[in-house]
């Protein structure tokens, strides 16, 4: 008996069976997702629907009825199920290979290029199986008979295949991975993703570059993350020939060491590179761990070098062919005026006449410091005090390997007076917060004032003796002979320090 249309009962059975199998396969996929974090794509719905309809047509229609459309439809559905099954099969295979990894971690466990390659191979195998066993097409003969088409496709896909082969090579050689900073064709960039066709890079300017894998393999690639993220970067500058190289290198090294992001170990290295027409060329080499901060760190190294060079009186020369006559405006007048007002109210120096304080400040240097520079360091020998004119500083004390901020000073504050008066070592580290301008009164300038007025030592010894007793938490009722003994000891130190 031949029929062209199924009965209503047959149609309901087929559709009902197809929906039942479809929902069972969807429930299976959801269970696998909860159990092993397997996430099937939308293609899985087509696979489930095709499989449900195929099984229904095979088993639910009665064998006694011959539908002329049934066999061709079953053949097409079988081919569709074979090809669509490649997609969930790929998901299962990836999960078997990379076991316990979550879906979000698959790209780090196995690069996308390898996963895509597995998908393509399985899909091609499914297509070959469908052609060979469902449609009874001899695939080898089909390929041999279409040699011209194969050549055309090969020529058209040579770039695509080249990128694929290069991507597989990059994966197995492990030249780089997502997150690494590279130097490719004179461009600094961070690896974002490696696909089967190209590598996605992000430059320092936040610009995305999609570079074909074959192009990367043609260039020399520098990976700043290998063998470790710590690597050296360099900044160059020139100084005048009159500056002693050993002194210049020491100053530039200290300036670079204060920059945030510069590794303390290995310590910065300063090399004399060349004798140029306009000056001596120096190279400052520092080690960093975050290559994304390279531009900022090198900028700060040059900034600190400028401030340190200016404080030391170093000259960064202009080209010798240019006649340069600087006429810079002296901006230190306001700084010295503020410093003189601060000194007039200082408990240790308020007894000095105003005109002498003005002379003292006038003969002192106005210094500038860059952000994060160490103005003084704890434990170092000192013979000067600083009066802050602009900016702020943090006072840090190191105890038992820990650094603690004990104070924050601003304009009008001063520090280091005990080192100026007695030569005592620095009791704390003082670090600039932003740009800082300060007047530095050193032993030479203050000593000249003391030499002209030796009676000042008597007043200083009394004030310093009172401060010492207060620091030692002695009461105001201390015996007079004890106070006098402390005063004489302080006076002796002052005379010895100022060579009087």
Architecture overview:
The longest helix is centred in the N-terminal third of the chain and has 29 residues, at 8-36. The model is unreliable at 104-110 (pLDDT under 50). The chain has helices at 8-36, 43-59, 70-84, 86-97, 106-109, 112-134, 139-145, 147-156, 158-173, 213-218, 245-257, 294-311, 332-344, 354-362, 417-422, 443-452, 456-471, 480-497, and strands at 2-3, 66-67, 181-184, 187-194, 198-203, 208-212, 221-223, 231-239, 269-275, 280-288, 365-369, 374-376, 384-399, 402-409, 414-415, 429-442. Helix 2 (43-59) packs antiparallel against helix 3 and helix 13 packs antiparallel against helix 14 (354-362). The chain has 500 residues and is an alpha+beta fold. The protein folds into five domains: 2-145, no CATH class; 176-223, Roll (SH3 type barrels), CATH 2.30.30; 231-311, Alpha-Beta Plaits; 334-444, Jelly Rolls (Sandwich), CATH 2.60.120.10; 454-500, no CATH class. The chain is elongated, with a radius of gyration of 41 Å. The strands form four sheets. Strands 11, 12, 13, 14, 15 and 16 form a six-stranded antiparallel β-sheet that branches. Strands 6-5-4-3-7 form a five-stranded antiparallel β-sheet. Strands 8-10-9 form a three-stranded antiparallel β-sheet, covered by helices on one side.
């Amino acid at each position: 008996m031949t029929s062209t249309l199924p009965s209503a009962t047959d149609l309901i059975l087929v559709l009902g069976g197809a929906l039942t199998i479809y929902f069972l396969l969807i429930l299976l996929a959801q269970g696998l997702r909860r159990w092993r974090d397997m996430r099937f794509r939308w293609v899985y719905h087509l696979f489930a629907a095709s499989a449900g309809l195929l099984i229904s047509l095979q088993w639910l229609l009665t064998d006694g009825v011959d539908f002329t459309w049934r066999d061709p439809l079953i053949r097409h559905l079988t081919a569709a199920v074979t090809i669509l099954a490649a997609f969930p099969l790929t998901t299962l295979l990836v999960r078997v290979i990379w076991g316990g990894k979550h879906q979000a971690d698959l790209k780090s466990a196995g690069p996308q290029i390898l996963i895509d390659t597995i998908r393509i191979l399985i899909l091609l195998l499914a297509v070959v199986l469908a052609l060979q066993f469902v449609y009874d097409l001899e695939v080898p003969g089909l390929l041999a008979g279409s040699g011209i088409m194969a050549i055309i496709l090969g020529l058209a896909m040579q770039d695509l295949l080249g990128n694929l082969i290069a991507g597989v090579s990059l994966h197995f050689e492990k030249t780089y991975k997502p997150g690494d900073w590279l130097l490719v064709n004179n461009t600094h960039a961070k690896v974002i993703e490696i696909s089967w066709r190209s590598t996605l890079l992000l430059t320092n300017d936040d610009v995305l570059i999609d570079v074909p894998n074959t192009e990367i393999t043609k260039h020399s690639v520098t990976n700043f993350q290998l063998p470790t993220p710590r690597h050296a970067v360099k900044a160059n500058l020139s100084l005048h020939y009159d500056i002693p190289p050993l002194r210049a290198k020491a100053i530039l090294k200290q300036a670079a060491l204060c920059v945030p992001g510069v590794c303390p170990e290995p310590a910065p290295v300063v090399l004399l590179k060349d004798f140029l027409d306009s000056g001596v060329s120096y190279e400052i080499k520092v080690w960093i761990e975050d290559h994304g901060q390279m531009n900022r760190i090198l900028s700060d190294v040059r900034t600190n070098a400028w401030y340190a060079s200016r404080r030391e009186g170093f000259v960064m020369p202009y080209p010798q062919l240019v006649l340069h006559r600087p006429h810079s405006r002296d901006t230190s007048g306001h700084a010295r005026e503020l410093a003189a007002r601060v000194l007039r109210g200082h408990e240790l120096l308020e007894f000095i006449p105003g005109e002498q304080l003005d002379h003292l400040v006038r003969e002192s240097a106005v210094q500038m410091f860059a952000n994060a520079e160490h103005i003084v360091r704890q434990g170092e020998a000192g013979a000067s005090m600083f009066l802050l004119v602009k900016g702020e500083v943090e006072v840090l004390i190191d105890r038992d390997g820990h650094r603690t901020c004990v104070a924050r000073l601003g304009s009008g504050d001063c520090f280091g007076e005990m080192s100026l008066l007695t030569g005592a070592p620095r009791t704390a580290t003082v670090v600039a917060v932003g740009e800082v301008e300060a007047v530095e009164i050193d032993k030479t300038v203050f000593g000249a004032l003391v030499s002209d007025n030796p009676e000042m030592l008597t007043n200083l010894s009394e004030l310093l003796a009172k401060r010492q007793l207060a620091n030692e938490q002695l009461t105001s009722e201390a015996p007079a002979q004890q106070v006098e003994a402390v005063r004489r000891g302080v006076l002796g130190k002052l005379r010895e320090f100022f060579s009087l």
